[in-house]
Write a structure and sequence with these properties.
This protein has 15 helices and 22 strands. It has 479 residues and is of the alpha/beta class. Bound molecules: ligand TXE.
């Protein structure tokens, strides 16, 4: 099946006439083509967005809200179809797509449809000067949204929804590895009555289509989620053009386990935080530090639970671990397992490709636990982004805090303890943007979302996203 660009409310082939293969990760087959859109395609999308902006920026909040909520309802009504498409395109278990990815994409539209009606700006009475200042928050104009392959529709809509809610028009590019649900979104937007040109979706490679969006002189803000190296490249291009940038990049997050935690809950959650979505979530807790007194017991229990995770075809309801997203990605993850061995890491379970009967060319890998001797080894410092975690014991609070922070990334951290004093201390000392205590991935869409250090710049979510997608203008009136 061939995918098309969605420009000015219409699905169409790329001007570039250039196409790339779309692979199905569960069987390794090419099952369609996607446009590799050129500068000319991006320009066409930009012109459509620019034209739509005049009216869209003037629509009432109520009208915008109604359309966003309608998109959300239509996604819910099409849950099965979207979940199947996401699972096939990405390799993730259908159960996950049905309970997490697509419902969350629907929530993104509903949330920002409601949030925009509550978004307010400040005013400042300048006492003694007979003046009042207020902040006018205006949409930026045409903005660019570029998203990755791990949570395709979930992250694509996490950017698009606040951008259009705030009155902008969008040129968006999903990952070329997982374009399918973004393609299906176009028709839903039309059905919901989103005016043509408000959302334009162009498909293609990062270095062609993505780069053309970032380089476009009139696209004034870029919201990006993806790899840290790509984020740096985007910043290099966008900074001299003074574009507004929101970058949500990689992570290598610590999962810190103290003996005084609720053990069973910790164990269940740690299995998910390690391997959900084949470990391909920037928030996964891929470095597990365990207090020495429970280390041996944890090791036995964790390995037992992980060995029981069923690796299989993503369309099967019993599958817990589906296929990795692509062949190059599988190879990257496997190369880290080799690195672990040369670094003296001990593979406690997993480490090998899995051959699924009938789907021998799919990109399957066993969930893998590596016991490392030192936190400084490469498998503990570099983002692997697959079903691979490291474990090691620690003795003191100070030791584990130092190891948790001694890394270039700073996205999230999880702490397992029932000690309040320790919790407060860690909440202040950990160099991360998101800190979970006795839980993982519990999300409230109002909260600021993003990382520090090499994990990114800026925050998404709630009013932070609406602030990003608007320009603040100070108006000072003397009376
Ligand atoms: O992501 P890319 P890749 C990490 C993970 C993974 C690594 C590389 O470690 O192994 O990044 O993954 C577009 N200008 N994460 O290479 O390339 C690209 O087309 C503009 C973490 O698949 O960063 C896609 O739409 N755009 C992460 C998007 O950027 C460009 C999720 C992300 O792709 C571009 C995914 C360019 N020059 C990977 N180059 C997370 N934080 O969740 C690429 N793109």
């Amino acid at each position: 099946m061939n995918i098309q660009n969605f420009i000015n409310g219409k699905l169409e082939n790329p001007i570039s006439k250039d196409w790339i293969d779309n692979y199905c990760p569960s069987d390794g087959e090419v099952y369609g083509k996607i446009p590799n859109s050129s500068k000319a395609d991006v320009e066409k999308a930009y012109q459509s967005a620019k034209t739509a902006f005049k009216q869209w920026s003037q629509t009432t909040l109520e009208a915008r809200s109604r359309i966003l909520i309608k998109i959300s309802e239509l996604l819910e009504a099409n849950l099965q179809r979207f979940a199947e498409a996401e699972s096939k395109d990405n390799g993730k278990p259908i159960g996950l797509a049905k309970t997490i990815d697509i419902p969350r994409a629907a929530s993104n539209f509903r949330f920002f449809g409601n949030a925009i009606t509550q978004f307010a700006s400040e005013s400042h009475e300048s006492a003694g000067q007979n003046a009042i200042n207020y902040t006018l928050r205006q949409p930026i104009g045409v903005v660019g949204c570029i998203s990755p392959w791990n949570l395709p529709l979930y992250l694509f809509t996490w950017k698009i929804a606040p951008a259009i809610a705030a009155g902008n028009c969008v040129v968006a590019k999903p990952s070329e590895v997982t374009p399918m649900t973004a393609y299906l979104l176009g028709e839903i937007c039309n059905e919901a009555g989103l005016p043509k040109g408000v959302l334009n979706i162009v498909h293609g490679l990062g270095t062609t289509t993505g780069q053309a969006i970032v380089e476009h002189p009139e696209i004034k803000a870029i919201s990006f989620t993806g790899g840290t190296a790509t984020g740096a490249q985007i910043a290099r291009v966008a900074a001299p053009m003074f574009k507004k940038l929101s970058l949500e990049l990689g992570g290598k997050n610590p999962n810190i386990i103290f003996a005084d935690c609720d053990y069973n809950e910790m164990l269940e959650t740690t299995v998910s935080s390690s391997f959900a979505n084949q470990g391909q979530i920037c928030l996964c807790g891929s470095r597990i530090f365990i207090e020495a007194s429970i280390y041996e017991a944890f090791k036995v229990d964790f390995v037992e639970k992980v060995k029981a995770l069923k690796v299989g075809h993503p369309a099967k309801n019993t599958t817990k671990i589906g296929a990795l997203v692509s062949k190059p990605h599988l190879e990257k993850v496997l190369s880290y397992i080799d690195i672990a061995k040369t670094e003296g890491g001990k593979i406690l379970c997993g480490g090998n490709k899995v051959v699924v009967k009938g789907f021998e060319n799919g990109y399957y890998l066993e969930p893998t636990i590596i016991e490392v001797k030192t936190d400084e080894c490469r498998v503990n410092q570099e983002e692997i982004f697959g079903p691979v975690v490291t474990i090691m014991p620690f003795k003191t609070e100070a030791d584990v805090l130092q190891m948790a922070n001694k890394i270039k990334y700073g996205l999230s951290a999880t702490l397992w303890t029932n000690n309040l004093k320790r919790t407060m201390h860690f909440s202040k000392q950990l160099q991360v943007g998101i800190f979970w205590v006795n839980t993982w991935m519990l999300r409230d869409l109002r909260t600021p979302f993003g990382g520090v250090k090499a994990s990114g710049v800026g925050r998404e979510g709630g009013f932070e996203a609406l602030r990003f997608f608007t320009e603040a203008k100070n108006v000072c009136i003397k009376y």
